[in-house]
Amino acid sequence: MEAPAIVTFTTIADQRAWSRAQRQAGKRIGFVPTMGALHQGHLSLVAKARAASDVVVASIFVNPTQFDNPEDFAKYPVTLDADLQMLREAGVAAVFLPTKEELYPDGYCTFVELVGPLTDKLCAAARPGHFRGVATVVTKLFNIVTPDVAVFGQKDLQQVLIINRLARDLDLPVEIQVGATVREVDGLAMSSRNRRLTTAARAKALDVPRGLELANRAYLKGESNSLKLTEIVYNELLIHDGVEVDYCDVVSLKGFAEKDTADDSCVLAVAAFVDGIRLIDHIPLGGPGIPEVVVDE
Ligand code: PAF
Questions:
Q1: Could you tell me if 173 and 69 lie in one domain?
Q2: Could you tell me which of 132, 130, 127, 134 has the C-alpha nearest to residue 115?
């Protein structure tokens, strides 16, 4: 059967007008913000948004303000035609595709910044300014799309916690939902960056979920020293040339505090460069382990 039509908007005014019309028609709007280069993980967020709304909007915008490294921004994969096809088949009704000039016109100088424990460790410490860019663009997208519900991926754990906090602190009228991490059959968490991995790099990248899994098993057998748990991940990853660990930490989801002694409130989170490509992943300690959701592409 032919997939239903999809509309695209590049201006804020057009996206707003469409959202207003949906609202006037009594429709509940679901929203999945993305930076494109879509994969099954994004589609699982679309499915979740569809289940929670009447019409789903996705956005595709590689947001320059969240990249601390210009080279990383320049190399971010762009696959627009394939993305639109996937979104159409997944039942998305509209796609917002703003240009950089539309969202950040000349003279732009307003940013949204969170303070406190959510923004002083892990990716926030490793990528200064990253979450300021994410919080800013997500606030802008919420104001433009006016969703009732927005869905983000659990893989970007710190991002999800920050957006949840942001929505609460700024009284944004949007419900934030979280979609489980989707993995490939061998355990690698799906990420738009995976498509930049060569076959050799991809093999090394598998040690990210493997290291996390081994550490979780050690925790389940009684090892609660955070340093020892992170050492397991380091040992798994650093056997390879071209792999650099950006951070590996045990953090409690209660207060987002770093813990010397791990407990069941903690996740073990890692970011590593594999042949220059930055991958992140995490595992809830004491849980069933990886995989959480597996998709065979
Ligand atoms: O997770 C992402 O793809 C991005 O950080 C987001 C939420 C679309 C903001 O640019």
A1: yes
A2: 132
Same domain, 206 and 73: no
Query: Helix axis angle, 12-24 relative to 130-145, nearest 10°?
Result: 50
- Pairing mode of beta strands 257-258, 243-252: antiparallel
What is the mean predicted confidence (pLDDT) over 134-161? 97
Atom 5 in ligand 1: residue holding the nearest Cα: 134
pLDDT tens digits along 163-179 = 999 999 999 999 999 99
Kindly calculate the radius of gyration of the chain based on its CA atoms and give it in whole angstroms.
Answer: 19
- Residue 101, classified by CB atoms within 10 Å of its CB into exposed (0-12), middle (13-18) or buried (19+), is exposed
Are 92 and 221 part of one and the same domain?
Answer: no
Order across the sheet with 266-274: list the strands.
Answer: 257-258, 243-252, 266-274, 277-284
Known catalytic residues?
42
Residue 24: how many other CB atoms lie within 10 Å: 8
Q: Which atom of ligand 1 is nearest to the CA of 34?
A: 8
Q: What is the pLDDT of residue 295?
A: 53
- Give the three-state DSSP class for 191: coil
User: What are the pLDDT digits (tens) for 240-253?
Assistant: 899 999 999 999 99
Q: Which residue has the tokens 């307003």?
A: 110
How many domains, in total, are found in the chain?
2
Kindly state if the Cβ of 192 falls inside 6 Å of ligand 1. Answer: no
